[in-house]
Amino acid sequence: MTAEHLRLAEAREKRIPWKQWGPYLSERAWGTVREDYSPSGTAWEYFPHDHARSRAYRWSEDGLAGICDRHQLVCFAITLWNGRDPIIKERLFGLTGNEGKHGEDVKEYSFYLDSTPTHSYMKYLYKYPQAAFPYTKLIDGNQRRSRSEAEYELLDTGVFDENRYFDVFVEYAKAAPEDILIRVTVVNRGDEAASIDILPTVWFRNTWSWGLDARKPQLSGDTTAEGARGIRVSHFDMAERWLMCEGSPELLFTENETNIERLYGIANRSPYVKDGINDFLVGGRNNAVNPKRIGTKASARYHLDLAGRQEATVRLRLTVNPSSEAFGNVFDKIFLERREEADAFYDAVSPKALTPDERMVQRQAFACLLWSKQFYHYNVRRWLRGDPTGPEPPRARHHGRNHGWTHLNNADIVSMPDKWEYPWYAAWDLAFHCAPLTLVDPDFAKEQLLLLLREWYMHPNGQLPAYEWNFSDVNPPVHAWSVWRVYKIEEKQSGRHDRGFLERAFHKLLLNFTWWVNRKDLDGNNVFQGGFLGLDNVGVLDRNEVLPNGGVIEQSDGTSWMGMYCLNMMIIALELARENPAYEDVASKFLEHFVYISRAMNNIAGEGIELWDRADRFYYDVLRPPDGKSQPMRVRSLVGLIPLLAVETLDSELIDTLPGFKRRMQYFIDNSPEFADCVETLTTPTNIRRFLSLVSRDRLESVLRRILDDAEFLSPYGIRSLSRYHRDHPYTLRLDKNEHKIDYQPAESQTGLFGGNSNWRGPIWFPVNFLIIEALQKFHYFLGDEFQIECPTGSGQRLDLWQVSLELQRRLTRLFLRDDQGRRPLYGRMEKFQSDPHWRDCLVYFEYFHAEDGRGLGASHQGWTALVAKLIQQSYAARDGDFHA
Fold first, then answer.
1. Which of 371, 405, 708, 785 registers the highest number of CB atoms within 10 A of its CB?
2. Distance, CA of 860 to CA of 604 (rounded, Å)
3. Collapsing DSSP states into helix, strand and coil, what is residue 379?
4. CA distance 701 to 651
């Protein structure tokens, strides 16, 4: 038990609230649905970046390298000004969904370098140009480029030339849950002298302006009884604390309230508004800050003049125990201890055999996940009605976005897909986050999975909320998979069998499963239509829209996800049945439902329609127009690989202990001939194994030949989302005199479908790759070393499926690792990232990756790409077929 493990135990047992404070501050609150009060739902235009410095947020705050308490009453972040920018740097800048050729995109460089699970130690890096930040140049430069061209990035503007920038390192160390040490280290990387203002900023989330609770907290510049100087933080719902500031910085105070004069031309009620500190510094307006040194937003201004390559450090302390000794020798001693404790924790978590580079990649992946926690606040009923002091919402709002989710009232710490690009939770992203999170903090992983099943998230009808742009959209049903994986990973890590967690989740998942059956199986034939199912533009048609001819798409992936869901629920029920026989009946129900789905895939509605194409020997979606003339849509994509994921093995060692389930299964075998089509039995002198899979052995070989073919799905960096075959053979569908076309696009999307901010027509995506690797390991568990396949196809090299899974893991992890020339594929031709010693070890966990050269694309800190931490972990586990390692 390291010191960090002990802190985790103290937090779990609710003895010491080590997680009371953390990196729960968003990196973008502007341009979000919850801040959008427009008649037409134009969130980006209603609250743009230009308003963010002047306009109080209604629901939650944002900032740079920030922290807050778990209720976001008090926030702290770093503000910067280089003396040249037209505005102070309080938050990251990026293009909106309508400005970018590939959707929204952050245009800055920040890195999550380290974090422990309790946030006892954290480290963040922001790279701040010394020239004026090129806001307009970035917008115009991207507008001039076509969708087929690469994004115009901050490095392309030249502001980092000759290293004319500052590295701003922000570190946090907890002496106690309510005593947080803060160290800001600024390094001038250029050769010439440069100046910078560091403005550590503390403020309250605005809860008083909306007509619901007029009580107002207060910040004040003060001196403690012992003579220490700082900012007193007084909030009626929490203990008084201080932001202690080393030295004698200038203290600047204003209010976290909207500057309605700037935005709307109406006189302000108070001269002190949200952008007062900005106007004081940039505009030279001395009357923009409160000379009485009180307010609800305050900064401590440190002006630094740094020679070339010089560095300086600013030290602060956010604490309930102010002291004149706050910055004595003990300050650096605590930082050193917390850093050493973080090292000890990760040494205990990571396999000993990792190379230094692998260890760094894994640790920064964990940091990416841990920094991506965010206070998420959204009360849909209140949002629809509006606030007493606000304008009456347009009537259209009551029939528009999220109007059917009035029960949803969120105010929790939630794992975000990306705190700038996607600062709202997404159900299936969160499920994938929890697998690697369990390696470092199983309690948080379990809390997250249960949270989305609670009644203030899950719809009364059983649907899980997808994401705030449309809670009614449908993500793949991977929640049960994640619940089971978290349970098994924790069991492997610590020997703990948390059946209480498993049972709580299972009961709520029953509601969600029933919703799927009732809402997404339109004809009751066990073939499912889930819409786009998280794969955005993977289809030749927009699968989220009603087809122009009134037909339906029978989805290979939707049906297969449900087959996987059945097996996930069955295996959870069997685990619970070890202690409660009542679950045997439920397990039998899911076994039977799996068989019905398997049968339906091969004979939809008894009409002889198959999702398996016998000519191509591949799975496709099937278009069923009203005239009944069905046709497969022969697009070779991940849609045809999802059937592999529905796979499980039942051992007699378990089944013999569950007589009720065993009897029902035997009855099903004896009386349902179709059972044999999806169940294979292997008998040994000591065991009977029954193998459940949507994909039979002969079909498995056919699908694998395509997966492992360099000319189709197999990339040097994993499995492509669309076969490379379509580069030279685009698929065209003619429907009602309209032509729909799809081709292979290995980089960003060349269409505006789903906002154009993601692309499933070629690139490498970690989550589905991860599931395919796991499925291959499950196949190997049953089929053994004797079942071998050529890998790559045509190479003459034959591997068993465990070896194939390891090869895919190797290809995915090499995206991040230095090659023989010291280059990381994810950074492509970005020479700064490849060779500069101050950039080359700063890692970004991109949303997806170019299928040919491996460079990173999309969002910059995508939580599910941190699955690479789990892949690294299991690559060094015992190679005995135990995929729960």
1. 371
2. 42
3. strand
4. 24
SS3 330: helix
Strand order in the sheet with 121-129: 110-115, 121-129, 165-176, 179-188, 311-319, 241-245, 229-234, 218-223, 294-295
- Where do runs of H (alpha helix) occur along 287-392? 329-349, 356-371, 380-385
**Start-to-end Cα distance in the chain:** 20
Residue pointed to by tokens 């008084």: 240
The conformation of residue 394, written as its DSSP 8-state character, comes to P
Best CA proximity match to 166, nearest among 372, 314, 306: 306
Q: Which residue has the tokens 């292997």?
A: 682
DSSP state at residue 418: B
> How far apart are alpha carbons 551 and 627 in whole angstroms?
9
Which of 192, 79, 76 lies closest to 128 in space, CA to CA?
Answer: 79
Q: Where are the alpha helices (DSSP H) in 206-271?
A: 260-264
- Determine the pLDDT at residue 843: 98
- Report the C-alpha gap between 567 and 562 in whole angstroms: 9
Determine the pLDDT at residue 811: 98
Q: What is the mean pLDDT of residues 463-478?
A: 95
Which residues are CB-contacts of 528 (< 8 A; sequence separation ≥ 6)? 516, 520, 521, 555, 558, 559, 561, 562
Tens of pLDDT, residue by residue over 583-641, are 999 999 999 999 999 988 887 766 778 999 999 999 999 998 888 788 999 999 999 99
Using only C-alpha atoms, the chain has a radius of gyration, in whole angstroms, of 28
User: Which residue's entry shows tokens 């397990």?
Assistant: 587
Tell the burial category of 737 from Cβ atoms under 10 Å away from its Cβ (0-12, 13-18, 19+).
exposed
- The helix/strand/coil state of 741 is strand
CA separation for the pair 128, 105 (Å, rounded): 18
79 vs 326, higher pLDDT:
79
Structure tokens at 516: 């799927």
Question: Taking a C-beta distance cutoff of 8 angstroms, is the pair 33, 401 a contact?
Answer: yes
8-state DSSP, 844: -
- Name the token pair of 95: 């293009």
469 within 8 A of 44, measured Cβ to Cβ:
no
DSSP code per residue over 570-586: HHHHHHHHTT-THHHHH
| Cα–Cα nearest to 35, from 25, 24, 47, 45 | 47
pLDDT at 605: 61
User: Are 178 and 228 within 8 A, CB to CB?
Assistant: no
Q: What is the pLDDT of residue 884?
A: 43
Of the chain, the percentage scoring pLDDT greater than 70 comes to: 99
- Separation of CA 421 from chain center: 10
Q: Which helix (H) or strand (E) holds 587?
A: helix 582-602
> Quick count: other Cβ atoms within 10 Å of Cβ 687?
11
For the chain, give the number of residues: 885
Residues 6+ apart with CB under 8 A from 792: 708, 709, 710, 714
Residue 391 DSSP one-character state: P
Alpha carbons 56 and 50: distance in angstroms, whole number: 13
